[in-house]
Amino acid sequence: SQPIPLPYPKVGTSNSAVKVGVVSVDGDETKWFDIPGDPRNNYLARMDFIPNSNEVMIQQLNRLQNRNKVWIGNVESMQLNNILTDKDDAFLNIHDNIQWLDGEKYFTWTSEKDGWRHLYKVSRNGKEMDLITKGDFDVVNINCIDEKGGDVYYIASPTSYTHRYLYRSRIEGNGVAERVSPKDMEGHFSYQMSPDAKWAIATFQNSTTPNRISVISLPGHKEATLLEDNSELKAKYDALGLNPKEFCKIDIGEVVLDAWMIKPVGF
C-alpha cells in the first residue's frame, strides 16, 4: 500500500470523501460500510476494531465539528448501529481515551456534556453512561486505566491552572477523586506510567524549581530512585537573588486575563 496525500480543503471548496471498508487477509474483495450522511460534509475521525469481536467502532464528526456519532459496525453483515451521539453548542475534541472493559461489555469515553471534560464508562449498546471522574474540574489527560486494580489515573487542575496533579478515581464511579501527587509539593506534575499502574516516572517543576525526575511506586507515590534533581541549576538560579514569579489576574473590562510578573530586585 502507499499513502495518498490529500490537501486540506480551502473555504468554499468540497472536502475529500472518505469511507470505511474491510477486506479479508486472504485478499477478498473489499466490503464498504454505508455510513449515513454526505461523506463530503462529515469526517470519519476514528476507526478501531473492537477486541475479540467481528465489529469496528467508527467515529463520525460533522463538518461543524460539534456532533460526534459513534457507530458499531459488523464486518460480516456490514450492519451499522449508532450507539452514541455526543454534541456541543460550540466544538468537540476528538479523543483516543477508549479502552474496552469487562470483556468488551463497556468502554471508556471522554465528554464535556456536563460542562467539564470527564471520563465516562459506557455500555456497548450506549444505553448506560456512568461518570467516573466526579468533580468540578477538567480531566487534562488520561495516564492509565487499570482495569485489574479498578482505578483510572489522570491529570487534573482543580485548584489552579498553574498546578497539575495526578488523581485517581474508581472505574465504577463510586467515591471521590483522590489526589495521588504529594500535597506538600505545589506545581506541575507529569507522569509516564507502567501498564500495570504500579510504577511511574514522575517529573515535577514549578516557577522556581527546575525539573525533578524520579521513579515512584503507586498508588503511594513513594520515591524509589531519583533520576535527576537539577540541583546545580537550582543553585545557580537561587544565587541570582531574583524575585519569584507572581501570578495574578488582570481585568480588562469584558474578560479577566491570567498573567504573571517578576518585580525588580529590591522592589
Automatic annotation (TrEMBL):
InterPro entries: Peptidase_S9B_N, Serine_Prot_S9B/DPPIV
GO biological process, one term: proteolysis
MF terms (GO), sorted A to Z: dipeptidyl-peptidase activity
Domain Dipeptidylpeptidase IV N-terminal intervals: 5-210
Pfam families: DPPIV_N
UniProt name for this protein: Dipeptidylpeptidase IV N-terminal domain-containing protein
Source species: marine sediment metagenome
Taxonomy of the source species: unclassified sequences, metagenomes, ecological metagenomes
